[in-house]
Amino acid sequence: MAVNKVILIGRVGKDPEVRHLENGMSVAKFTLATNERYTNKSGEKVETTEWHNIVAWRKLAEIVEKYVKKGNQIYLEGKITTRSYEKDNETKYFTEIVANNMQMLGSKKENQSSAPLSSEDNSAPQKVDIIEEETDDLPF
User: Is 137 helix (H, G, I), strand (E, B) or coil?
Assistant: First the structure.
């Protein structure tokens, strides 16, 4: 049995780039930053940031285009994929997360372009639940 599942909570690094392919399929690409804080051997507090390349397809890509902006905090589930290509007679590898579930996090004020809450309370968490079908047939 094998499992390839990634769960991330982080902030969007830049506005997503969305393309609409000739076959009508949409694809959205953006970066997501996750932070880790720890105390090193010297007792100093250290914070590291990891940048993840995110790809969303079909309906999820359309929702990303509509609601996700730079700085938004999101919860994301997906799988790790690695692509390769040739450049200057050398094989280059590119790792990304293919998203299949996403929730907007943070306050309504932070996500003003997001879907409206059922409550008028601006301090309530903002959530947009998206579940996308399997993406095994994607053209890479």
Answer: coil
In the chain, domain spans: 6-131
CA–CA distance, 34 with 50 (Å, rounded to integer)? 5
Written as one letter, the residue type at 120 is E
- Three-state SS for 84-113 is EEEECCEEEEEEEEEEEEEEEECECCCCCC
pTM of the model: 0.73
User: To which H or E segment does residue 61 belong?
Assistant: helix 58-67
Class of domain 6-131: mainly beta
Using one digit for the tens of pLDDT, what is the confidence trace for 82-132? 999 999 999 999 999 999 999 999 765 555 544 432 223 333 333 445 444
The DSSP line for 110-136 is TTTTSPPPSS--TTSBP---EE----T
